[in-house]
Every structure is written in C-alpha cells, then in structure tokens.
From TrEMBL:
<dbReference type="GO" id="GO:0005886">
    <property type="term" value="C:plasma membrane"/>
</dbReference>
<dbReference type="GO" id="GO:0015031">
    <property type="term" value="P:protein transport"/>
</dbReference>
<dbReference type="InterPro" id="IPR016482">
    <property type="entry name" value="SecG/Sec61-beta/Sbh"/>
</dbReference>
<dbReference type="InterPro" id="IPR023531">
    <property type="entry name" value="Preprot_translocase_SecG"/>
</dbReference>
<feature type="topological domain" description="Cytoplasmic">
    <location>
        <begin position="1"/>
        <end position="31"/>
    </location>
</feature>
<keyword id="KW-1003">Cell membrane</keyword>
<dbReference type="Pfam" id="PF03911">
    <property type="entry name" value="Sec61_beta"/>
</dbReference>
<keyword id="KW-1133">Transmembrane helix</keyword>
<comment type="function">
    <text>Involved in protein export. The function of the beta subunit is unknown, but it may be involved in stabilization of the trimeric complex.</text>
</comment>
<keyword id="KW-0813">Transport</keyword>
<keyword id="KW-0811">Translocation</keyword>
<keyword id="KW-0653">Protein transport</keyword>
<comment type="similarity">
    <text>Belongs to the SEC61-beta family.</text>
</comment>
<protein>
    <recommendedName>
        <fullName>Preprotein translocase subunit SecG</fullName>
    </recommendedName>
</protein>
<keyword id="KW-0472">Membrane</keyword>
<keyword id="KW-0812">Transmembrane</keyword>
<feature type="transmembrane region" description="Helical">
    <location>
        <begin position="35"/>
        <end position="52"/>
    </location>
</feature>
Length: 53
C-alpha cells in the first residue's frame, strides 16, 4: 500500500486501533517550557493562598 492510497477502515478485532499520520491542531500549542512555567506559577499561587488566610 502506498502512502497516497490511504483507506480509512473502522477499528476491528482484539482492540487493534489504526493510528493515522494526520494531526489534529486543536487548541494552543504549548512547549514543555511553557508547561513547566505554568506549573511553577500555579504552585506559587496555591502556596500564597494557603498562607494568606
């Protein structure tokens, strides 16, 4: 089967799933650095809330 001859078949038998090379671009693209920074900021925010009351 060539790359141009892609057929979409339903998943069948024994839990086999066919993964397609097509990417779905939904939502913002985040780099790992963004995730780390957001996590640190959220942790600091939670600590400030914990000790502000």
């Amino acid at each position: 089967m060539g790359k141009k001859d892609k057929k979409r078949l339903p998943p069948t038998g024994a839990g086999l799933v066919r993964y397609y090379e097509e990417e779905e671009k939904m939502g913002p693209a985040l780099t790992p650095e963004h995730v780390v920074v957001i996590t640190i900021l959220l942790a600091i925010f939670c600590i400030v809330l914990r000790f502000s009351g």
